[in-house]
Amino acid sequence: LDEAFRRNPGYDLRSMLGGTRTELEGIMELARDTPSLMLQAVPVLFLPHDRNAATSILYSAKQSNLLYAVLFADCKLVTHVSAKRHPLQASDLLLMINFVNKAKQLRSQETWTPLCLPGFNSTGFLHAYASFVSKSICLLLLSSGESLDQFHFCSEAKAKICLQLQTSGLTDKIESMSYPAFKPASCEAASSIHLIYRSLKSGQYFETDIQDHAPLHQGQDARKRLMSRYINISERLHASNRQSIDLIAPLEPAEPNKKGEAESTGQIWDVRDCESVLALFNPSQFEIYATFHIFTTPNQAMACVLRFAAWVRNNKNDLFMVKEA
């Protein structure tokens, strides 16, 4: 689209956008209802002890003519394997999540379709084989080939993956973890209403459910309002003048960047009518957004968030896909 506008500023977009309404609406929903686009990070399924086993199953079925094999559950990443020279970008994984969420035909049939992943190549397409292997679990196999033989190869690979997932008990285990409700109290953060933790190294994030004792924050409209507030705070947190933010308490210094320079950390404590929000940013570790009741003090909020961050670090192998195959 950008190239088309550069060549002709008066270009009529409708011819290029034909048939994309559902996908565009899905992207707008991601931006409005989730922190995914704000963070440019992927939600990951909580999966204690078994993520490596799922990765090994995908890896055993991946051949040289497959660039990526990706497993999602309830529109969250379970695991993926990638070509060594082409690691998957978070933005491309979000496009896959949107595709899986909006392509209703996937639940009843195998699909073979071109899919553009700008992080891989913004001027071309890969071909994606997509199929649900159970009620909540979807498999994507992506190849540079487009022949019918490649489709049949992917279909056979899917059958092998399904069999291994079922015989190992992973299908049932992943299904059982598709809808866990992590309240802040179960994450060492009982005094908070809602928390988001983005792992900067992995490009993935973990989000709690809304705390039960927060009636003003229940429901879809309240969530949209909270997401909008996070976006506003995120823009301030990442502004060029974030060094001037008054620190509530000192954070650990960030690791030096590639130039050997120590990047600055940032904090925002934002108080409004319905709640207070604490946002923390450490360029080498994390980005955190935490919502509290209006009477919570900054020091109480900071203590709660640091406990939450320690809990995430202690459970990172279950919360995130730490190593890419």
Automatic annotation (TrEMBL):
Residues 65-146 form the FUZ/MON1/HPS1 second Longin domain. GO terms for biological process: protein targeting to vacuole; vesicle-mediated transport. Pfam families: Fuz_longin_2, Fuz_longin_3. Residues 193-315 form the FUZ/MON1/HPS1 third Longin domain. This is Vacuolar fusion protein MON1 homolog.
